[in-house]
Amino acid sequence: MKSMRLTPKQAEQIAVDALIHIAGDGDRLARFSALSGIDPALIRDAATEPGFLAGVLEYFLGHEPDLIVFAESAELPPERVAEAYRLLGGDSTAW
Description:
The protein is an all-alpha fold.
């Protein structure tokens, strides 16, 4: 049976869950902050900016070990993270 396509709302929820996953681990948060250039104290405000949630998913797509851990904790296949990324405006040619 073929899985259903994500809705924009579902894609956004995956990204929010991913952000919560990042924030729940100090090492992961420090890595995300270093790679994105966003101060952890400003993440809440940044989350309202267009493209930020796609960037959160891009972080996972760029580091497979974190992607696998997040996907398992969210009980979804890693491919869904890539689908959510594209739906939120991420580069359609990536992943």
